[in-house]
């Protein structure tokens, strides 16, 4: 097991990392929405966003057939227009072996939520066993949820020790650490949780906004707080951490605003699917629809695009 983390108080942590200027954040994200992409730049942004999608199904009614359909959609988002594959499919651990049959060995990665997703309320031993099982079945990436109770109780060392244990359980699999920002309540807490996670994960691992299972998910505001935390951590340590907003991003217009935030905060080095992802299902069809509009000059009806979560 990794060595336990040194205890730290919230006040001391904020002395180290600073707090968030909420007004400043809101002003910055408002400017992101005023940027306008035209013609080739818009097509570039839309295609880039497609390659960043973790196409997701996380429902109790998921079946092998539904996962097969999801995988086919990830590999070929549309029959026309030479649209690239998505970054990954994201499924429950029990569905990893089914996803592997369809995208194993392709450029589409298999991501699996784990650690008692979405609540994280299970013994650590159980959560780690779930991670190991998903990796053994073929998961390339693990999306874990942090112990929000530990964070909100000020048990930061416990939170970090658990993340470090998951890092170890992942082996070579990439880790995405879900903060569940709506339960952290403030921008200051989101920044603090981001730093605590980044200090124990590896270069190329992710911090992620949300599970998509709460009333409030990814917003330009909480995305900006996390991007700036990544920037400040990188400037201080040289360690590049990746980012994944998830939940509530449904339109191509929204996705382009998020990409503008990435470019203006972190630069072009983060404009790829190794360092930025979207956790989404409905988003992909709108991206494809907008690309078809740019290609043909006319909007296609929504029902002309297959549903990503359509089962057999």
TrEMBL record:
GO process annotations (BP): carbohydrate catabolic process; deoxyribonucleotide catabolic process
Domain of life: Bacteria
InterPro entries: Aldolase_TIM, DeoC, DeoC/FbaB/LacD_aldolase
Gene3D superfamilies xrefs: Aldolase class I (3.20.20.70)
Reaction catalyzed: 2-deoxy-D-ribose 5-phosphate = D-glyceraldehyde 3-phosphate + acetaldehyde
EC number: 4.1.2.4
GO cellular component: cytoplasm
Keywords of the record: Lyase, Schiff base
Pathway: Carbohydrate degradation; 2-deoxy-D-ribose 1-phosphate degradation; D-glyceraldehyde 3-phosphate and acetaldehyde from 2-deoxy-alpha-D-ribose 1-phosphate: step 2/2
GO molecular function: deoxyribose-phosphate aldolase activity
Family statement drawn from the similarity comment of this UniProt entry: Belongs to the DeoC/FbaB aldolase family. DeoC type 2 subfamily.
Protein's UniProt name: Deoxyribose-phosphate aldolase
Annotated organism of origin: Brevifollis gellanilyticus
Source taxonomy: Bacteria, Pseudomonadati, Verrucomicrobiota, Verrucomicrobiia, Verrucomicrobiales
């Amino acid at each position: 097991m990794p060595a336990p983390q040194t205890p730290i108080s919230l006040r001391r942590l904020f002395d180290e990392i600073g707090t968030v200027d909420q007004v400043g954040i809101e002003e910055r994200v408002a400017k992101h929405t005023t940027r306008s992409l035209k013609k080739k730049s818009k097509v570039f942004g839309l295609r880039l966003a497609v390659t960043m999608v973790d196409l997701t199904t996380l429902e109790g009614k998921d079946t092998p057939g539904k996962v097969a359909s999801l995988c086919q959609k990830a590999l070929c988002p549309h029959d026309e227009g030479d649209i690239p594959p998505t970054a990954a499919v994201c499924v429950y651990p029990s569905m990893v072996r089914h996803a592997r049959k369809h995208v194993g060995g392709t450029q589409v990665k298999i991501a699996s939520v784990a650690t008692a997703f979405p609540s994280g309320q299970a013994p650590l031993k159980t959560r780690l066993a779930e991670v190991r099982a998903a990796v053994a079945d073929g998961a390339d990436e693990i999306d874990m949820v942090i112990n929000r109770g530990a964070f909100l109780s000020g048990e930061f060392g416990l939170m970090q020790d658990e993340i470090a244990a998951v890092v170890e359980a992942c082996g070579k699999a990439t880790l995405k650490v879900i903060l569940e920002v709506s339960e952290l309540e403030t921008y200051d807490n989101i920044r603090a949780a981001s730093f605590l996670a980044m200090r124990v994960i590896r270069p190329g691992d992710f911090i992620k906004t949300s599970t998509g299972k709460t009333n409030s998910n990814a917003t330009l505001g909480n995305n900006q707080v996390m991007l700036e935390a990544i920037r400040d951590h990188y400037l201080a340590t040289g360690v590049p951490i990746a980012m994944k907003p998830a939940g509530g991003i449904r339109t191509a217009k929204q996705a382009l605003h998020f990409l503008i935030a990435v470019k203006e905060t972190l630069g072009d080095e983060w404009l790829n699917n190794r360092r930025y992802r979207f956790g989404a299902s409905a988003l992909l069809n709108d991206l494809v629809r907008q690309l078809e509009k740019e290609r043909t000059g006319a909007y296609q009806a929504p029902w002309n695009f297959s549903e990503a979560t359509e089962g057999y």
